[in-house]
């Protein structure tokens, strides 16, 4: 009897380890268009970059988020592309993606504040938002670090803290409570808001 | 000096060959349907997932949800592809291994048992991928996987493993005696 049970266990393990494929996250229309524009600008092909920008999802998204973005960001990006001003294009795109990441952090915080239920479901929601935040912020982290290394470090530290709260260490009883999940998200939103404000102000001063 | 006689291969029962061939036919039909109805299948799966936001953990924010939907659709498509691949391969495995069993196993009871294990296991296992794929839109990735595992993969996969090890043992025994 025991032998039979052992045999069943031994056999069940490899049978359960079947192959179901792996998922590699893809770029969405906005991040794809960002990369197209960025690489065209790096190659000094500003006419190509302008075409890609004018016909792409980046500009559409900028218009859709106009209410939460610094005034004139979309027009300014197009003007910088027309003028062949690479650093200015990079700065404006950095502001745009920082704003997208900030808005997601704010929305995540709002959801976590409103969500009742189990800690696991809150952690699952936070994890999904963190993935989306990182997908956008990661695109401009280098540009942020070049301009303001403290902000870059602060965002990364807050992100690490949020990830640790979402994925508790092995053996931990349950994911962190809502308050612990919300703190790093609030910090990400606050740091990015400061970055956006500072970058937009310096742009206005320069222009 | 006499030369050893070459082994005479025996054909497995006709129903086993039929199951093997049917598995390959199903694989081909599945592959062709996957290509022909790709848009319709994706549309159906997406619609079914959007109708069950709680099951898939959708939060109503496009930037978050698009990745969840994309992963589920990729896995839905992967399930169909894996069914195509496994059914094609297992059809051939059934034919080849049952032929070996029919040739090597002398005891009728042992022969029948091994052939039954290899045929049912080999034909059933690929269906698990179809089940997994079909359940993803309604039950979510993990729940669909668990159902497919316990309903199909573990019982039929185990049957194939038992059959193959039994057959391997018999072949080893015959080689040791020769």
Description:
With 207 residues, chain A is an all-alpha fold. Chain A has one domain (27-206). Chain A is 79% helix and 0% strand. Chain A is built from 9 helices and no strands. Chain A has helices spanning 2-16, 29-42, 46-55, 57-64, 73-83, 86-114, 119-147, 149-166, 178-206. In chain A, helix 3 (46-55) packs antiparallel against helix 5 and helix 5 runs antiparallel to helix 6 (86-114). The model of chain A has no long low-confidence stretch (mean pLDDT 85). Chain B is mainly α and 178 residues long. Chain B has one domain. In chain B, helix 6 packs antiparallel against helix 7 (141-177). The longest helix of chain B has 43 residues, at 62-104. The model of chain B has no long low-confidence stretch (mean pLDDT 93). Chains A and B meet through helix 1, helix 6 and helix 7 of A and helix 4 and helix 7 of B.
């Amino acid at each position: 009897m025991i032998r039979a049970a052992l045999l069943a266990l031994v056999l069940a393990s490899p049978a359960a380890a079947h192959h179901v494929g792996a998922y590699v996250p893809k770029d969405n229309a906005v991040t794809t268009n960002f990369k197209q524009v960025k690489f065209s600008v790096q190659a000094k092909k500003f006419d190509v970059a302008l075409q890609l920008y004018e016909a792409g999802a980046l500009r559409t998204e900028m218009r859709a988020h106009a209410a939460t973005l610094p005034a004139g960001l979309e027009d300014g990006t197009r003007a910088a592309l027309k003028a062949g001003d690479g650093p200015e294009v990079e700065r404006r795109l950095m502001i745009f993606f920082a704003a997208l990441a900030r808005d997601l952090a704010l929305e995540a915080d709002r959801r976590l504040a409103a969500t009742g239920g189990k800690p696991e479901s809150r952690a699952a929601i936070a994890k999904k938002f963190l993935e989306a935040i990182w997908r956008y912020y990661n695109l401009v982290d280098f540009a942020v670090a070049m301009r303001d290394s403290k902000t870059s470090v602060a965002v990364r530290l807050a992100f690490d803290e949020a990830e640790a709260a979402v994925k508790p260490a092995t053996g931990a009883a349950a994911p962190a409570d809502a308050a612990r999940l919300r703190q790093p998200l609030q910090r990400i939103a606050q740091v990015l808001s400061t970055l956006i404000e500072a970058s937009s102000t310096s742009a206005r001063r320069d222009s | 000096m006499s030369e050893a006689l070459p082994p005479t291969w025996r054909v497995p029962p006709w129903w086993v060959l039929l199951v093997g061939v049917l598995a390959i036919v199903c694989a081909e039909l599945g592959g062709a349907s996957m290509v022909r109805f790709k848009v319709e299948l994706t549309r159906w799966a997406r619609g079914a997932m959007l109708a069950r936001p709680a099951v898939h953990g959708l939060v109503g924010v496009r930037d978050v949800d698009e990745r969840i939907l994309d992963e589920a659709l990729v896995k839905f498509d992967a399930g169909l592809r894996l069914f195509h691949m496994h059914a094609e391969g297992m059809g051939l495995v059934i034919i080849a291994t049952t032929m070996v069993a029919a040739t090597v196993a002398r005891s009728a009871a042992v022969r029948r048992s091994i052939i039954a294990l290899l045929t049912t296991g080999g034909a059933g296992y690929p269906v698990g991928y179809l089940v997994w794929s079909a359940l993803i839109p309604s039950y979510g990735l993990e729940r669909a996987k668990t159902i497919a595992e316990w309903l199909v993969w573990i019982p039929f996969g185990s049957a194939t493993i038992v059959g193959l090890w039994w057959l391997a043992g018999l072949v080893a025994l015959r080689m040791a005696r020769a």
